[in-house]
Amino acid sequence: MAPTQYTKITLAERPKEGITDTTFKREVVPFDLKPGQGQILVKALYASIDPAMRGWLNDARSYLPPVKIGEVMRALVLAEVIETGPGSKFTKGDIVSGVFGWTEYGVHNDSAAEKIQTQPGVEYLDYLGPLGATGLTAYFGLLEVGKIKAGETLVVSGAAGATGSVVCQIGKKLGAKVYAIAGSQDKCDWLEKDLGVEKAFNYKSPTFHADFRQAVGYLDVYFDNVGGDILNFMLTRLKMKARIVLCGAISDYNTSKPKGLSAYTNLISQRAKIEGFVVFDYAKRYPEALRDLSAWAKDGSLKRRFHVVKGLDNAPEALKILFSGGNTGKL
Ligand SMILES: NC(=O)c1ccc[n+]([C@@H]2O[C@H](COP(=O)([O-])OP(=O)(O)OC[C@H]3O[C@@H](n4cnc5c(N)ncnc54)[C@H](OP(=O)(O)O)[C@@H]3O)[C@@H](O)[C@H]2O)c1
User: Fold this and answer.
1) 216 Cα: distance to centroid of ligand 1 (angstroms)
2) According to a count of CB atoms within 10 Å of the terminal CB, is the N or C end of the chain lower?
3) pLDDT tens for each residue of 179-232
4) 323 touches ligand 1 (CB under 6 Å)
5) 3-state per-residue secondary structure call for 207-222
């Protein structure tokens, strides 16, 4: 039976720095949703919580337009089709993914949804993590931007997160020596014991810089998820012709005044390269990455963890977790 009302979470104001209790607004609205021609009515099951969402709150030029004030917060969502409009290609009960946002229910055009084809050994949540945007980001960032080769030294920051944990594992599979950087001893233990990296460093340790210099020395590829001080330090650790993959800079997302990089001239002396990318650039090539990622997920060699926060009402609090490092694996 259709509900009489449903909940959605909209953007109330643009945060100046971190997300606050007044950034988002919870709205309970009457249920008046009906799919039209070629449309579906979906019920949300899981929403992906991504650092990029913080960027979408800023009124600034980026690869996607900002979320408007009053609009449902943008998010990639796994949902169940509960009703189809005339001529829809979907069937009631299909599980689909799409940018449906923080709302319990929504009506969308067929073209905005993609059916999830389940495979043995793979669970639905994998399509928001290793077989979704973060897995694809890890794959194309490391192979196409980092151009990692067997025997090279790879360093990964944000290593216990959704993207970083996949980067570490692909690096190992390709024969690189992988060093990880993360924000707690528990995360470092997981990276060393379960994911098999050579060594993991807690960047909050007072001996981080000395430990890193001693154990790693210099690097060929740095996959950067965090920016800021760690990126600046890695600029002093480059081998000749090193590549820095600029995937993300979460340490700077909550500040209007990023510190900047004082060590960038090492790029000149080491003839090194720093290159940003956005995963969507590789959209045409997703199938080739998904062949590898699915095979590794199915044979169990791609380890993954999920951090699930229950309840749409808790989505704004969940977004803050990314900035306090409360998640291991995909949030
Ligand atoms: N370029 C692209 O197309 C693309 C696509 C997807 C994601 N990204 C970027 O990739 C990065 C990782 O995204 P994700 O979804 O995989 O998130 P995630 O790594 O699962 O979660 C974010 C992690 O960042 C770490 N962190 C937070 N504040 C930090 C700080 N000040 N200094 C150092 N580390 C900090 C935390 O771990 P610790 O406990 O280790 O601090 C936290 O768990 C983000 O920067 C994101 O924007 C880029």
Assistant:
1) 22
2) N
3) 999 999 999 999 999 999 999 999 999 999 999 999 999 999 999 999 999 999
4) yes
5) CHHHHHHHHCCCEEEE
